[in-house]
Amino acid sequence: MKKALKISGVVIVLILLIVIGYVGYVFLSYSRIEDNLTLTVEQKAKIEQVEPEKEYKAVTFNIGYGAYPPDYTFFMDGGKESKARSEAAVNENIDGVIQTLDELDADFAVLQEVDEKATRSFGVNEVKKISDSFADYSAVAATNYNSAYLMYPVLDPIGKSKSSILTLSSTSIDNSIRYSLPIETNFNKFFDLDRAFTVSELSVSNGKKLMLYNVHLSAYMKDEEIQKKQIMTLFNHMKNEYEKGNYVVCGGDFNHDLLPSSSETFGNDTSKDYSWLQEFPSKDLPSGLKVTEFSDDGEAVPSSRNLDTPYEKGKSFVALIDGFIVSDNVEVSETKVMDEEFRYSDHNPVEMSFQLKK
After folding, report:
1. Is there a single domain that holds both residue 6 and residue 60?
2. Do 23 and 155 share a domain, yes or no?
3. What is the spatial distance between Cα 228 and Cα 255, in angstroms, rounded to a whole number?
4. For tag attachment on the chain, is the N or C end more exposed, with fewer CB atoms within 10 Å?
5. How far apart are CA 308 and CA 301, in angstroms?
6. Any bridge partners for residue 47, and if so which?
7. Predicted confidence (pLDDT) per residue in 325-346, tens digit
């Protein structure tokens, strides 16, 4: 009996040491990327300037790091899985994303959840894979999520992640800067590293600048004050650029409802707790900025699905959370969600056609 107790005690001590060591590793490896960070632009575009009164097309697309086919469910949404199913599955989904972007033939693309090196996507460098596929587009990526190896969930840990937001432009990018967003300071910060938005500056032939924003706001956040600070940080930056006389185009995954009510529009089952879907604070937008209206021709199309169950049209919880904010010197002719039926991601791409006023 004494020997058994002694062995049990040693095992418990070893387990405690492992847990303490792991917690120490997570805390010691934590750091935030510096704010106002100038990014390296991969300059490949042949066009040097944007022209006023010319029709352009922009696309925003959260590609879900190539992990989410339509039948995938995610543990943080109430589903079962935590990583992509295989390296082959990641490459297949990223190839599908590239094909979609190629077919849309947009002048500008802002992409979110593009992994550079992550356990969850089997180390596939999606930033390079996508950038290399568009030879005449300048590209700039900024780290938006960078975590230590997370042993969560325990039976299938999501692991270590480095992921980016990626901007592609058929016009040369003069410079691009990464700006940090506020995040929670409790333990949740280890699951929400390292939120930011980028601003890419493009020259316009009339001497002004087109400021192209790429943003992915936090989804799994309980602190409403921090959530509000994220949004206001973005709003204030766009306001300052607009007041300088520049053009503002901001695309991204806002993780807020861009419709009066996605649940009413798409007939969602509201008996479950989907409280993450909050109303977008349009009333707080500075004067001169607006969320673009979506085309109402035909049936409304959602831009995202909840990952608690496999996707089933008309039954899955869906919402419209991806889109664009523009300044009033940008004339938008159409904004629409492309109905890909979540073939390669848990999001559908959103396309906007616009001109810069003279």
Report:
1. no
2. no
3. 12
4. N
5. 19
6. 171
7. 999 999 999 999 999 999 999 9
Cα 85–chain centre separation: 21
Q: How confident is the model at residue 297 (pLDDT cuts 50, 70, 90)?
A: confident
User: How far is residue 333's CA from residue 20's CA, in Å, rounded to a whole number?
Assistant: 57
Same domain, 64 and 203: yes
Same structural domain for residues 263 and 227? yes
3 plus 115 within the same structural domain: no
Residue 356 has φ and ψ, to the nearest 5°, of -90, 125
Domain that residue 12 falls in: 1-30
Cα 95–97–102 angle (5° rounding)? 95
Is residue 288's pLDDT more than 90? yes
At CA 244, angle to CA 239 and CA 247, rounded to 5?
70
Strands 318-319 and 304-305: antiparallel
The total number of structural domains in the chain stands at 2
